[in-house]
From TrEMBL:
InterPro entries to which the protein is assigned, alphabetical: Class_I_gatase-like, DJ-1/PfpI, Homeodomain-like_sf, HTH_AraC, INH-QAR
PANTHER family named among the record's database cross-references: ARAC-FAMILY TRANSCRIPTIONAL REGULATOR, HTH-TYPE TRANSCRIPTIONAL REGULATOR RV1931C
Protein name, as recorded: Helix-turn-helix domain-containing protein
Keywords assigned: Transcription, Transcription regulation
Pfam families, alphabetized: DJ-1_PfpI, HTH_18
Organism: Streptomyces mirabilis
Length: 326
């Protein structure tokens, strides 16, 4: 059975963002080409929807699809004056969201995080939204830990993304969680997008342009990615960039949205996941090839970030062999 995704279109929806879930999920397929997801778009009452642009759209479904959905996506809608003033959802929308099952995954794209927060679904958790409205989200919903520096936040059942193309990043992340890096990378290639973008939305926030704009950490990041198996230190990275450690760390965080060592650990973990999915290398060899050094360190990172051992991850995410006709 395919994974059922229901995408909610409300008045004021951004058309580009509305199309992201179907575009990404419909490109996730088994080796024989069978779709892994089925995506439907719905509106409240099945009514036509006025978009953020100069046209309306007609959908074929209403909120009854919520009762059978495995994942629900709230397409981008900027928060209205009433929501910003009261922090409350309109009654019809609140009633619709109540129809979502307790195990159903719920995703917001961009500023639709305000809708999840107003429904109480983000209380006590971490979330993000477009960087221009992160302060407003934190002010209006003080029980939500708002992170303005990331492309998306995965809290398990509830996920939120930053603005625009971050919705693509989040949908590919879900494909990666459900079916592994190989399937997600193939879907990304079909969509002609990067399977994984470095850093967070901090790199897109408007900052004063530094005087030495020709200096960047991008060459050093590529240098590191080409040498993940080596014992690279922060000092090594700064030396390669011809900067002091302090200057390199500050510039790296400004460009990427995280510290150099955190980024390095994420890169090593991503490489280890890919090797587990696409090769039959032992855990020890993968630990060495990805720069963790030994299996103990690799297992620790997998348990901390993924909640699985490397072998359990391999069993869950290895791509099946294509079935050949006899």
């Amino acid at each position: 059975m395919t994974h059922r995704v229901a995408v909610l279109a409300l008045d004021g929806v951004l058309p580009l963002d509305l199309g992201i879930p179907a575009r990404v999920f419909n490109e996730a397929r088994k080796p024989d080409g069978t779709p892994l997801y089925s995506v439907v778009t719905f509106s409240l009452g099945g009514r036509p929807v006025r978009t953020h642009e100069d046209y309306r759209i007609v959908v074929d479904h209403d909120e009854s699809v919520l009762e059978s959905a495995d994942t629900v996506v709230l397409a981008t809608q900027e928060p209205g004056e009433d929501l910003l003033a009261t922090g409350a959802l309109p009654g019809e929308l609140a009633a619709a969201l109540d129809r979502i099952g307790p195990q159903t995954r719920i995703v917001s794209l961009c500023t639709s995080a305000f809708l999840l927060a107003a429904a109480g679904l983000l209380d006590g958790g971490r979330a993000t939204t477009h960087w221009t409205l992160c302060d407003e989200l934190a002010r209006l919903f003080p029980d939500v830990e708002v992170d303005p520096d990331v492309l998306f936040v995965d809290n398990g059942r509830i996920l939120t993304s930053a603005g625009g193309a971050a919705g693509i990043d989040l949908c590919l992340h879900l494909v990666r969680l459900d079916h592994g890096a190989a399937v997600a990378s193939a879907a990304a290639r079909r969509c002609v997008v990067a399977p994984w973008r470095e850093g967070g939305q901090a790199q897109f926030i408007e900052h004063p342009v530094p005087q030495d704009t020709d200096r960047s950490t991008s060459a050093t990041r590529q240098w590191v990615l080409d040498r993940l198996a080596e014992p690279i230190t922060l000092e090594d990275m700064a030396r390669h960039a011809h900067m002091s450690v302090r200057t390199f760390t500050r510039r790296f965080r400004s460009e990427v949205g995280s510290s150099p060592l955190k980024w390095l650990a994420q890169g090593r973990l991503a490489h280890a996941r890919l090797l587990l999915e696409s090769t039959d290398l032992t855990v020890a060899r993968i630990a060495t090839a990805s720069g963790f050094g030994d299996p103990v360190a690799l297992r620790k990172h997998f348990h901390t970030h993924l909640g699985l051992s490397p072998l359990a991850y391999r069993r869950a995410h290895s791509a099946p062999e294509p079935v050949t006709a006899q």
